[in-house]
Amino acid sequence: MGPMADYWAWTLAQPLQTQMAMLMGLLVVTVLFLKTLTGMLNSRRPPCVGGIPIIGGFLKFIKGPLPLMDAAYAKHGSVFSVNIFHKRMTFLIGPEVSSHFFKANDLEMSQKEVYEFNVPTFGKGVVFDVDHKVRIEQFRFFAEALKKNRMRTYVGMMVMEAEAFFDKWGDEGEVDLLQQLSDLIILTASRCLMGKEVREQLFEKVSELFHHLDMGMLPISVVFPYLPIAAHRKRDWARAELSKIFSKIINNRRDSGQSEPDVLQAFIDARYKNGTGLSDDEITGMLIAVLFAGQHTSSITSTWAGLHMLAHKQMVWPQAEEEQRKIMKTHGDELNFDIINEMDHLHCCVKESLRIHPPLIMLMRMCQKPFTVTTRDGKDYDIPKGEIVATSPCKAHRLEHVFKDADKYDPFRYMPPRAEDKATPFSFIGFGGGSHGCMGEQFAYMQIKTVWSVLLRKFDLELISPLPEPNYEAMVVGPKGPCLVKYKRRNL
């Protein structure tokens, strides 16, 4: 009958207690064997941050992603994982390991699954509520709306809004820089993105509705975006009201044949490959998406740029003023797209503030196709399909082997011959990179440099509050505490 049959016949002939003991022993051996086999199969999986079973690293994660990343990086290096309930999140920290994160297309590393919590805010049928092919087409509409020939028009609007805004300041006084620049950024955004109808007739109403959308984006919204709480109900009401407002503007433009040089018009004119246009609600969703992508990040980055230039005034402020003087000798008081592109020193000051204080702690994707990552010291790790993959501008921008004296504010690190951000691809990821790089990068730089060009020309400024700490408890990380600045009007 064979040895296995003989073994089982012999086992069944033993007393019941003996049979149970033997079966338990066999079970233990089997479990140990399977555990060993699993360990062998997973030997190339990244090391995992410890945590309570099932809950995993969730408790550590919600206490603060940055402390978790700091501790895990110090212990495990540039690649490590965290178990969050039934999901596993793998971090790739640094340019040597994050290239696939940025280079992979949406079919390999997808945004949709990890950012679906935005759907109630943006609306159905746009961005993270559509399949890959439709999303690619919608991203093409974003790119068309922000291309260079349109940017030239937008910069003119930005200059007009900035000059009008600062003309209302007195000859001297004190302001909270974050509050002032947040107010100005929403004005320029309404003019360039949502159109003159909103800026000139409906600004207060639309701003109020966007505020409700903003307040409806809470940390709990990321996990439970449809939870029936007051903030979500207000968010949903505001989204519906915005759709009504923009539908009326869109229909008025279509009926009158009117065309305006703004992002709203670009979306009205956009056509899918099959020839159909965007519905009114899709246009509203696209506008909300582009405003959410840029409003907070631009106001926060423009504030950090000013705070750091003023906190390091002797190091960078004289060069910033001299750059403006040289440009004014050639172009007079004019500010336009080409002139602002000449401001290399100001550009580096803004970029360095974005390196030190990126508004977004993490960028995430869902791995749709397995890949292998190799660390600086030659270790290979396998990342399976279905894993959440993340990288962190906050952590990656502070790596000493990438940026010398990484905690130090130093705009000159981007200038030749140093050019530290170009030594390794994806060293600077303030706007992401690769196939998912931020399409609004040029718009953001133009907006921030326009604001600071006007300020440099019109005012002498002094920081009178301490340089604030970042508020890592916020969804978008800005300064924590007052940003008080003393100003005195002058002509440069």
Would you give an account of this structure?
By secondary structure, the chain is of the alpha+beta class. The chain folds into two domains: 44-120 and 363-396, no CATH class; 123-358 and 414-489, Cytochrome p450 (Orthogonal Bundle), CATH 1.10.630. The chain has 19 helices and 13 strands. The strands form four sheets. It has a six-stranded mixed sheet with strand order 1-2-3-9-6-4. Strand 2 (79-84) and strand 3 form a beta hairpin. Helix 8 (148-167) runs parallel beside helix 19 and helix 14 packs across helix 19 (441-458). It is globular and about 65 Å long. Mean pLDDT is 89; it is low at 3-11 and 28-41.
Architecture blueprint of SSEs:
Elements (H helix, E strand, L loop, with lengths): L2 H10 L3 H26 L6 E2 L8 H6 L1 H12 L2 E6 L2 E6 L6 H5 L5 E2 L8 H4 L9 H14 L2 H20 L4 E5 H18 L1 H20 L3 H5 L6 H27 L6 H7 L10 H32 L1 H19 L5 H4 L3 H13 L6 E5 L3 E4 L5 E4 L4 E4 L1 H4 L44 H18 E5 L5 E2 L8 E2 L3 E6 L3
Parallel strand pairs: 1-2, 3-9
Antiparallel strand pairs: 2-3, 4-6, 5-13, 6-9, 7-8, 10-13, 11-12
